[in-house]
Amino acid sequence: MYAPSTGDLFGDAPADTRHTRLVEGAWLLRGYALDKASTLLAAIEHIAVAAPFRHLITPGGFRMSVAMTNCGTVGWVSDSSGYRYQPGDPLSGRPWPPMPSIFLELAQSAAQAGGFPGFTPDACLINRYQPGARLTLHQDKDEGDFGAPIVSVSLGLPATFLFGGNSRNGRQQRIPLQHGDVVTWGGPARLYYHGVLPLKDGHHAVLGAQRLNLTFRRAR
Ligand code: MD3
Ligand code: FE
Questions:
Q1: Which residue of 39, 47, 84, 180 sits 20 to 30 Å from the alpha carbon of 4, by its own alpha carbon?
Q2: Is 24 within 8 Å of 10 (Cβ atoms)?
Q3: Does residue 174 fall inside a structural domain?
Q4: Cβ partners under 8 Å of residue 116, min gap 6
Q5: Distance CA 182, CA 27 (A)
Q6: Cα(35)–Cα(95) distance, integer angstroms
Q7: Per-residue pLDDT tens for 89-111?
Q8: Nearest listed ligand to the Cα of residue 190
Q9: How confident is the model at residue 1 (pLDDT cuts 50, 70, 90)?
Q10: Which CATH number is 123's domain given?
């Protein structure tokens, strides 16, 4: 369905031509985090000292190619007993590192730009892709409140993001995501199937041969 970008039904985008509506409920904010990238990266390095990136094991017994860590009051984990959010890092038994205020501010202002004022994430999942790493098509449905959006921030090497609709077998769109891009996913797009194609080898001036992705969530 067509809706004008000035409409008020699905969230107003500011008058910025880099902001494009992907589908109802989803806005791509090109370069939105660019000016904060170095601060974000320093914060991620700090988080990863306390809570290192690790390759989680799926309930089916497969090692994920993407390495993950979290910050916030809860973090997403996977193991043989399933997927869930939990307050402690299973590697250390300690709480996840707190969410830095610059993370929170970025997530809130992006959510507002995407039509979701008042978003207060309690979890930030940090994904690290090295060449070949991918995320197969999935839904994010371990959160308690699907009324809240998810905000994603891409850093480092570009990746091809795939997303379909409400069924695994539906038609998929491919979106290239670059360093500094932010996407907000809410409303009808919140439960859409999505994934990331295997990361192509390359060199990014700041991050070298890797891509980092932050996803801000309201888990509880
Ligand atoms: C669309 N991460 O961590 S971010 C994930 O690039 C995840 O690392 C990808 O999918 C990445 O779960 C994609 C974009 C994204 C995140 C959550 C969504 C798109 C979404 C939830 C619903 C619909
Ligand atoms: Fe996801």
A1: 180
A2: yes
A3: yes
A4: 11, 148, 149, 184, 186
A5: 8
A6: 30
A7: 999 999 999 999 999 999 999 99
A8: 1
A9: very low
A10: 2.60.120.590
**Atom nearest to 195 CA in ligand 1:** 10
Taken as a whole, the chain contains a residue count of 220
The SS3 call for residue 139 is coil
Whether 10 maps to a domain, the answer reads no
Handedness of CA 62, 204, 137, 193 (dihedral sign): positive
184 CB less than 6 Å from ligand 1? no
Half-sphere exposure of 164 (CA within 13 A, CB side): 13
Structurally, the chain folds into a number of domains equal to 1
Q: Is the CB of 133 under 6 A from ligand 1?
A: no
Other C-beta atoms within 10 Å of 87: how many?
A: 12
Mean pLDDT of the 129-153 span: 97
Task: Say which ligand is closest to the CA of 183.
Answer: 1
Q: Is 111 in the pocket of ligand 1 (CB under 6 A)?
A: no
Quick count: other Cβ atoms within 10 Å of Cβ 59? 11
Q: Which helix (H) or strand (E) holds 67?
A: strand 67-72
Does 182 sit in the ligand 1 pocket, CB within 6 Å?
Answer: no
Nearest ligand (C-alpha, residue 217):
1
107: containing domain: 20-217
Domain assignment present for residue 5? The answer is: no
- Return d(Cα 38, Cα 31) in angstroms, integer: 13
Ligand 1 centre to CA of 197 (Å) is 12
